[in-house]
């Protein structure tokens, strides 16, 4: 299933917008674009919303016919327990996380211990936990961690754009993680020379115009055959003013959805 996530609404949610989009507003916009899936990912207000506010958001998503996924950072057992509880509120069947959290940088051995402590609860609830590929943990090490814990409910959220900062190749990241993927973050990316030709900027690009070999990902991972959801995100730099930035963000979403829908 193709979905949108909060990173597709990064600037629309931000306080730079004249009227920042609410979470329920993002749900409504997602549905208006004919999309049935939304990933609430790294959305800070989620953690301090009251029980009534959470129930209201979950009810709004349900009324719109949206499937919800959640995303956070960190693998401390108490933190994962909190997001497992939130997943049950939203009837979410996947939580994306990262090995490192805002206040913790565990060794891989410590992370494995924490994950073994937590994953049984995810198994009992029928909810997947997907650890994202990114630059702070090598792709091979992340795949090895998932393999060692050895649960069918633990896998990888594949975002090959992130690993370039570790001087890893996106195609290699895709191939290493393919057997373990449970979620895909979809965005294109490219390098551009900085002004004066001194160095490069690495950032997002409209889908299909950058360096991401998405057909290779589709062939290697087979997300649509395996029922793996593809979540649209953007790395859109600030465009000089809020109106232009938000208009561009929405245009990138349209381009990405069209690209995914037209790709078998």
Automatic annotation (TrEMBL):
It holds the Pfam family AP_endonuc_2. It comes from the Bacteria. InterPro entries: IolE/XylAMocC-like (IPR050312), Xyl_isomerase-like_sf (IPR036237), Xyl_isomerase-like_TIM-brl (IPR013022). The keyword Isomerase applies. Keywords: Carbohydrate metabolism, Isomerase. One of its GO terms (molecular function) is isomerase activity. Residues 78-254 form the Xylose isomerase-like TIM barrel domain. PANTHER family: HYDROXYPYRUVATE ISOMERASE, XYLOSE ISOMERASE. This is Xylose isomerase-like TIM barrel. It comes from Microbacterium hydrocarbonoxydans. The lineage of its organism: Bacteria, Bacillati, Actinomycetota, Actinomycetes, Micrococcales.
